[in-house]
Amino acid sequence: MTQNRLMVYAFWDTDAEVWVATSENVPGLVTEASTIESLTQKLREVIPELLLLNRIAPEVDIQQE
After folding, report:
1. Domains recognised in the chain with CATH numbers
2. pTM, two decimal places
3. 18 torsion bin: left (phi>0), alpha (psi -120 to 50), beta (else)
4. Long-range contacts of range 28-31, CB-CB < 8 Å, 24 or more positions apart?
């Protein structure tokens, strides 16, 4: 199976006091959460859905480095 990597950028928004994640590889991905752990869990749910909706990948296995 071929593996493609998706780059997700996460940063702390000091004004809103939340972690924000975006990605050029995942169309429509902009999400936020109060903790990095919550953001990671949210990304595990949202990324596969967006990839399927955008017809980019039939299935996704998300691993954190």
Report:
1. 9-53 (3.30.2390.10)
2. 0.79
3. beta
4. 28/53, 28/54
